[in-house]
Every structure is written in structure tokens, then in C-alpha cells.
Amino acid sequence: MLPVVFHLLTSSTVASSLTHSSSPTSPPPKPNSSPLPPSPSLHGGGGTSIFPAPSSPPPASASSAIVSTSPLTYVVQIPKNQIYRIPPPENAHLAEHYRTHVASLRHQRAPCLKFLSRFFLIFAAVAVPLLIAALVLYLLVRPASPTLRVHHLAAKKTQFDVSASIANPSNAMGYLLDGGGAAVLAYQGKSVAKGEPPHFYLKAKESKTFRLEMHGVGKAADRERIRGSKETVELRLTVDVPVRLGVWGLRLWEMKMNMDCEIMMKSLGKKARVASQDCKTKVET
């Protein structure tokens, strides 16, 4: 609430000031000096009263009026929400200029936004179906690298015989071993025998046993030391072979498969036995 102060003069003050200014100066009225008539009795029928009769007030004159110059103050409270103000006209010009400027900036950015929106729409329309198809294919095929396991390894005079098996854990992917790779048997970092992997097709969820005939290479003394050892011998078998993937009867591109086994042999004679092994298989382009 905002107070508003008004200073007003009363009508009697204004009239008195006007009368005083317009009428000539006159002498003051003489006082009533006549004595009060005596009253012989307090009550009476026909007698006069002992109380004096009230005298009439003197006539009012313009000169006897009291002139008051003090104003009257009135406080009026007005609510804020009822106070209105008209904004200056330059505010409308500034607002119009701002709207025009913002509209021009939006128009300049519109081509870039349209291009980006179209690009993302096209990208999403192409990428999303491909991702869904790849996910469905992966869930159906479940591709996995084959696993190798060595069952027997025997050392002869000039060669080594290796009996191993390979298993394919994939749901719908097969591996075609084209042959032409190489198998190497090493002892203490030196190659002691080499051979060629077999050629066959390994279906999904299939396991096959194969035999490797590896001919001795390098120094004959190293082979004799391995064959005549009665202690545990550590050997390393590495098989590198090209493979072609197959899914639902379709032959895909050719890749390389590497099988690496670290084998601990208890003996390499007639009673040869595999004590432990650690085989890893990796398929890569």
C-alpha cells in the first residue's frame, strides 16, 4: 500500500478568510451591561424567577470570526497492483528489434540444422537394422574358435607322431581346413620336428581326431636327448593353418587359425604320457 498525502483547507477557513478580506473594519460590539432583574420568589405563579434569564449570544460578525490557516492532512492508501504505468515508446522499438534479430539468427542456422537432422535420420535408418541383424546373427550362430587337445605324442628315431583332436563349439559356423599350413614341434626354443596339418571340414558342434606325422629337423642330438629322457620334458606344438568359414552351407572368406600348445611329457618312449597341456586357439584375418 502506498500512502498519498493531501493538504486541504476547511470551508469555514476559506470563507472566513474571504470575508475578512472583503468587509471594512468595524468596532467590536459593546457588552451587555444591564443588571439582572430581581426575582422575589423561587416559585411562583405570576412572580419572576430568582434565576436570571439567559442572555442571547452576541451576533456573529465577519470581524469576530477566528481565521485558521492550518491545513488538514488526509492519508490515502492505494494497493500496488492498482498502480499502472505506461512504458516509454522506445521500449516497443527495442523489443521489435530484438525479435527481428532472433528471427534472422534462426533463419541462418536453419540450413545446418536441417542437414544434421537429415543425416542422423539416414544414419539411424541404415545403422539400426544392421545392428539388429548382426545381433540376431550372432545369437543364432554363436561363433567360437575351435579347441585343440593333444592325446598322445611319441618320439621315434627320425620322426614324432602326434595324436590330437579338435572341437568346434559354434552353433552354426563351420571351419574348412584347406591344408597347406605348417606344424612345428619345438624343444627349448629350437625346432625338432615339422609336419603338415590335415585337410578336413569341421562342422558346428563337431569334434574330430587327427594324426600328425612330423619329421625330425635340426640336430639329431636334441632328438636323442628328448627320446632318452626319463624326466618330464616340456615341448611346444604350434599349428598354423588357413581356414574358410562356413555358415548354413555358405563358404565365407578365408582366415588364419593358430593353435599353440605347451605340453609336459612324462616320457617319450613306449610308455609316453601327457602330464599336462595348455592349448590356445586364435582365428584372425
TrEMBL record:
Residues 25-40 have a biased composition (Pro residues). This is Late embryogenesis abundant protein LEA-2 subgroup domain-containing protein. Keywords: Membrane, Signal, Transmembrane, Transmembrane helix. GO terms for cellular component: plasma membrane. The chain crosses the membrane at residues 119-141. One of its GO terms (biological process) is defense response to other organism. Residues 16-57 are annotated as: Disordered.
